[in-house]
Write a structure and sequence with these properties.
InterPro entries: Harbinger_derived_prot (IPR006912). This is DDE Tnp4 domain-containing protein. The structure is a single chain. By secondary structure, the protein is α/β, with parallel strands linked by helices. The protein folds into two domains: about 120 residues, no CATH class; about 250 residues, no CATH class. Helix content is about 50%, strand content about 10%. A five-stranded mixed β-sheet has the order 3-2-1-6-7, with helices on both faces. It has a two-stranded antiparallel sheet with strand order 4-5.
Length: about 400
């Protein structure tokens, strides 16, 4: 009996040692260099773009950017003097996971990187992309950007248009049980919402991610910082004329669920006249910009086509933000070719206002102006007339 007790005690004291896998880091890097980055790479530029979702010079720019802002992407020796993974291997592993929606251990054989290290590289990569490129590629429209957006809107029959707005859901299968009710909305599974604004070239000008999937678009809008700069008087001035009337606030094309504010131009639910039918066709056609942007985003980065597993909210937010930054980088680099898919900034919390009474009064006035339904309906009527007149001149 004593022997049996000793045997049982020995069983409970068993230590499961971690097995060392003798990965050849140098061979992994040499393989990647030979396939894609050598003087005469094995695979063509077209194959590179199809597999990495961007052109080689764009990939190299991102590689250099994350290397410059995060020491994690610098190559180090371990305690035995052996060189660890190179920056290239870590970035390739992260990009493959994002592009193909692969589990972390699926890149081991090609890159020679362990599962936990690949996951760590992914987290560092997304944070480093935000640090290196977020300021430029998550910016609000500058005066030059606004002028260009207004010019594009004018040419499409919508003077004053700044883009199209809509929301997208991303399933969150690893949502904590206590939160599932709050994060479950229209589908069977918990999800988080991305609100975004996109222009015709598919550049995403505004992104707000992380609200529970049970929220409707209007609930997302109430919490979104999209108009915070406007009510603080920090947006570039806008002025345009439609049907003989002058307006001083730009707008977004939206679907019917959005409120009747001057900041949104919606379709007409039951058009009765030809000119109204024409306006509906023009508005719904132009509003597809945001749908196209969501489609390209999901096609390019396969992770967001499927449910999100194994990540917490902060990680998911970083991943989504990194997606949008790289999406905008590709749009800037490839322009019209960026739609070839063969393969928010959430913003900072506003500090309590400590300004003068005049500043607070201006804030309140801008807030009310943003929600003026009379201006919303007048703008819609003017745009109907404007598009009908343009149609008659074609």
């Amino acid at each position: 009996m004593v022997a049996a007790m000793d045997e049982e005690s020995s069983f409970h004291r068993t230590i499961h040692e971690r097995r060392l896998v003798p990965r050849d880091h140098a061979d992994g890097e040499a393989r990647i260099m030979r396939h894609y980055f050598g003087a005469n790479p094995v695979y063509t530029p077209e194959m590179f773009r199809r597999r990495f979702r961007m052109k080689r010079h764009g990939f190299i720019r991102i590689l250099n950017g994350v290397h410059s802002v995060d020491r994690y992407f610098q190559q180090h020796e371990n305690c035995t003097g052996l060189l660890g993974l190179s920056p290239l291997q870590k970035v390739v592993a992260a990009m493959r996971i994002l592009a193909y929606g692969l589990p972390a251990d699926a890149v081991d054989e090609y890159v020679q990187i362990g599962e936990s290290t690949a996951r760590e590289a992914l987290y560092h990569f997304c944070s480093a992309v935000i640090a290196a490129f977020g300021k430029e590629y998550l910016r609000s429209p500058t005066p030059a950007d606004v002028a260009r957006l207004l010019q594009v809107g004018q040419s499409r029959g919508f003077p004053g248009m700044l883009g199209s707005i809509d929301c997208m859901h991303w399933d969150w299968r690893s949502c904590p049980t206590a939160w599932k009710g709050m994060f479950t909305g229209r589908g069977k599974h918990p999800s988080m919402i991305l609100e975004a604004v996109a222009s015709q070239d598919l550049w995403i000008w505004h992104a707000y991610f992380g609200l529970p999937g049970s929220c409707k678009d209007i609930n997302v809008l109430q919490r979104s910082p999209i108009f915070s700069a406007y009510v603080r008087g920090k947006t570039p001035p806008i002025q345009f004329t439609v049907n003989g009337r002058t307006y001083d606030m730009g707008y977004y094309l939206a679907d019917g669920i959005y409120p009747e504010w001057p900041a949104f131009v919606k379709s007409v639910r039951h058009p009765m006249e030809r000119k109204t039918e024409h306006f509906v066709a023009m508005q719904e056609g132009a509003r597809k910009d945001i749908e196209r942007a969501f489609g390209v985003l999901q096609t390019r980065w396969a992770v967001i086509r499927g449910p999100a597993y194994g990540w917490d909210m902060e990680r998911l937010s970083d991943i989504m933000t990194a997606y949008i930054i790289m999406h905008n980088m590709i749009v800037e680099d490839e322009k019209d070719e960026a739609t070839n898919t063969n393969f928010d900034n959430i913003g900072t919390l506003a500090n309590p206002s400590l300004g003068s009474n005049t500043e607070r009064e201006a804030f309140v006035a801008a807030h009310h102006k943003l929600r003026d339904q009379a201006v919303h309906h007048q703008l819609q009527r003017d745009l109907i007339e404007h598009n009908w007149m343009r149609y008659g001149l074609i």
